């Protein structure tokens, strides 16, 4: 009689195999036929089940691929519709939102970051200008009547640079930022048409020819007032944010103007010799301040430009007078420079 036992098999083929084993153990089946019985009742089922699972998995894979393709199509449609919605919104809405976000970061930078509020304010100072520029670029025709009211016959560039000076100076003084203070001096130099433009591999120093006297006068006054206040200890500490702008940018602008004015190759320029004398006087004075007053940057910058001017004059004299005259002048200049270095080496290279 058969005895039924509780099995722990998990799959159907295991149940069949275990059932055959128990039947053999109970004497109901011949042990010699065990392999045949397993081959007949267990193995075909496993093979058929494997084939069955492979077919279903293939069908499911195709279904998943179709669902993914459909999902991609739905996402594409959603993106296109969203872009259509965004494009339907007027440009001034985006400009207004960007302007409000930028002004918020400028006026209340701690709204975005408490630990980096100064950097947020400096960044928003430039992004605000970018938004304003984009607004004028997009609605130039609509804003032109308003600009005509405030222009009063003054060129647009001068008006823009004036308000840039006011804008950058206010932010620099409020946040005590030397970066913004530097751009204040850049805007002031732009009033004289001087600009410094860098593209990969090339640095352009540019100003209009007819503005040469203005470039020299304005930047000479900048340096004169700055060094005068520093030497007399009357320079307000609050204006120290403009220090690097005046010492570096104004010195470069002045050196560029004097280099052009004193150059012998600019035949269309008038008063070349007066510019040479003015260059010598200003450079000598800035070097005196460099060694005696402790203000080193203007003297160093102007000396570099003065050296370039000397090289131009050597080349010009050599070109006009021939090789012999050029060699004599160059030799005299080199002996003179060597003599000055030998005589004043302790003073020049003093720490």
TrEMBL record:
Record keyword tRNA-binding present: no
Keyword Phosphoprotein carried by entry: no
Entry's transmembrane regions: 58-79, 85-107, 119-138, 158-175, 182-205, 241-266, 272-292, 323-341
Alphabetic keyword roster: Membrane, Transmembrane, Transmembrane helix
Coiled-coil annotated residue ranges, if any: none
Name by which UniProt lists this protein: Uncharacterized protein
Domain of life: Eukaryota
Organism: Hexamita inflata
